[in-house]
Write a structure and sequence with these properties.
Largest sheet: none
Distance between the termini: 12 Å
Order of helices and strands: HHHHHHHHHHHH
Shape: globular
Structural class: mainly alpha
Number of strands: 0
Strand content: under 5%
Number of helices: 12
Radius of gyration: 19 Å
Amino acid sequence: MAFLRELFQKNFSTLLTMGLLLAVPLLGSAAVLGLLYEQPDLLRNLTLGQSFLYFAVAGLLMATALTPTTFVAIITGFYFGWVGLPGMVAAYALASAIGYELARRLDHGKLRTVLHHFPKADAVLAELQNQSWSLILLTRLSPVLPFALMTFVLAIVGVPRRRFLAASVIGMLPRSLFFYWLGTKAQDVLALLHDPEQGLASKLVLIGLVAASLFGLFVVFNRALQRVLRNGTPAN
């Protein structure tokens, strides 16, 4: 209880931001659907400059949780086709970089400072940092873990920047390619955005991605905890 009380008292702004990152994408989804409903041809026949602007704005919106990453993949696939795939990957990289910097600036290392007072929690976190490549890949693999929230969490626990950016892009590819492919095949993008899990095959792929991510994360966390227990880290 002492740990939770101190964590809340000294990290209220950080925890509030995490809560907003969890809720805001719902509003962003509704806004995107409304805009495309009113202007279904908004993203058709863009010039090269407009396309660059689209991907830059998409990266900014994903970084701030205003637009879910699945929406970006579906919309880009529908309007741009496979030629837009590099732009989507670049937008993901931009979103990861912006989100990482925002998280570090908002938290200022306060979470790690609190954890230093609780040796076991701090030791587990240190072990997770040693496995950060696997941790990031598995976190990004799951389509149900919010992109911006996970960016925020991974940044404030101290994952190295370069490793975070590289693993984020690679980890996002399996689920992003799937939703991108759905976008390229869609006849009605609005219907697909309302229900991205249309069809049995789609549901099985999503279940497989979620299961692989959760099982992998369980293994990583369990391995970190077992190493801490073997090392005999003293309780606070």
